[in-house]
Amino acid sequence: GGPLTATARITDTLPTGVILTGLASSSLGEVSMPTDTTIYWSGILSDTVSVDIQYQVRITTSATAILSNSASIDDGLGSIFRRTVTFLVNPQTAYLPILLRYKEIE
Q1: Coil vs helix vs strand at 99
Q2: How far apart are alpha carbons 98 and 86 in whole angstroms?
Q3: Has this prediction a pTM greater than 0.70?
């Protein structure tokens, strides 16, 4: 498997309540962060090599929330894919009492 000739692109715009912290990196191609909520990646892929894109985020909301993050993947050959992950932030903890049932010995 050799390199493909088309440039693939990924755009990830983070949801409200999430911001980028630090730098982003990738194992192949180029990654940029034009804002604190947007990540762009582009590069020419191979049919045998995967790409790792790494970045750190911070949750800025203090409320319990279910957030969804979607990335748009353009393969450079005319197809666009969306991948979404949904996650729970700042979950509430509930402590329930332990109830024991005793049986009398006869």
Answers
A1: coil
A2: 32
A3: yes
Cα separation, 90 vs 64, whole angstroms: 5
Given a contact cutoff of 8 angstroms between Cβ atoms, the answer to whether 20 and 36 are in contact is yes
Report pLDDT digits (tens) over 60-102.
999 999 999 999 999 999 999 999 999 999 998 888 888 888 7
Tokens 């949904």: give the residue: 86
- Nearest to residue 23, comparing CAs of 53, 69, 71, 56? 56
CA proximity to 46, closest of 89, 8, 87: 8
Count of alpha carbons within 13 angstroms of residue 22, beta-carbon side: 7
Indicate if the alpha-carbon torsion angle 61, 65, 32, 26 is positive or negative: positive
